[in-house]
């Protein structure tokens, strides 16, 4: 797996993406995901900060914070 990962060259995505970013931890708040994704996405990148840790992103409590926006984003 390490050899495959090292050899992988990611392609680009021709479209828009929505990112839900955990921001509760200090390490999470330090950098926006936008700059990391920009080389790979030709369209708009919309980022929504979520008040939880990365490990909590799929808990019921955290999903209640962004579930409605996720649903709206998928319906467009």
Percentage of β-strand residues: 15-25%
Mean of residue pLDDT values: 87
Based on CA atoms alone, the radius of gyration comes out at: 14 Å
Which stretches of 5+ consecutive residues score pLDDT under 50? none
Q: What overall geometry do the principal axes of the alpha carbons give?
A: globular
- Count the beta strands: 2
Instruction: Report the sheet with the most strands, covering strand number, pairing sense and barrel closure.
Output: 2 strands, parallel
Number of helices: 4
Fraction of residues in H or I helices: 40-55%
Helix-and-strand structural type: alpha+beta
The separation of the N and C termini measures: 36 Å
> In which order are the strands of the major sheet placed?
1-2
State the order of secondary-structure elements, H for helix, E for strand: HEHHEH
What features would you describe in this structure?
The chain is of the alpha+beta class and 76 residues long. 41% of the residues lie in helices and 16% in strands. A two-stranded parallel sheet has the order 1-2.
How are the secondary structure elements laid out?
Elements: H1 2-7, E1 17-22, H2 26-29, H3 33-37, E2 45-50, H4 60-75
Parallel strand pairs: 1-2
